């Protein structure tokens, strides 16, 4: 049972396909408002992760909802861990052993090409440094749904 609103993380294409409207309608129907992090880039960047962490902390959110494909899921997984980490989330990407906990992640999968919904891995880009891939069992999605459209 969710106590608060989820943070919704999404890419740009779900607006065009109608998935966004369907997901928002379900959330409204069950009386669960959602704060959004929009337009996550392919090979998501640390600035998106940091913004998502800021939103989750500021609003004391207790779950992160990923609506999209692999990049959105990867970004969401790091947001979920970064929210409960006291330092910069990039430290988690550089060393996944530092991940001790993460918010629950629920995914609405729109593209299963990468397998991100089935593994505890993530690829994150940091323009100031490098592109990193990490793996941690703590990043595994708590629930998965197929696209409603």
List the helices and strands and how they pair.
Elements: E1 7-10, H1 13-17, H2 19-29, E2 35-37, H3 46-59, E3 64-68, H4 70-83, H5 90-94, E4 105-109, E5 121-125, E6 131-135, E7 143-146
Parallel strand pairs: 1-2, 1-3, 3-4, 4-7
Antiparallel strand pairs: 5-6
Commentary on this structure:
The chain has helices at residues 13-17, 19-29, 46-59, 70-83, 90-94, and strands at 7-10, 35-37, 64-68, 105-109, 121-125, 131-135, 143-146. By secondary structure, the protein is α/β, with parallel strands linked by helices. It has one domain (7-144): Rossmann fold (3-Layer(aba) Sandwich), CATH 3.40.50. Strands 2-1-3-4-7 form a five-stranded parallel sheet, sandwiched between helices. Strands 5-6 form a two-stranded antiparallel sheet. Helix 3 packs across helix 4 (70-83). The longest helix has 14 residues, at 46-59. The radius of gyration is 14 Å and the shape is globular.
> How many angstroms separate the termini?
25 Å
Task: Please provide the ordered H/E string of secondary-structure elements.
Answer: EHHEHEHHEEEE
What portion of the residues fall into strands of 2 or more residues? 15-25%
Write down the domain tally.
1
Give the low-pLDDT segments.
143-149
Strand count, sense and barrel status of the largest sheet are: 5 strands, parallel
Question: What's the CATH C level?
Answer: Alpha Beta
Second-tier CATH architecture: 3-Layer(aba) Sandwich
CATH topology: Rossmann fold
Shape: globular
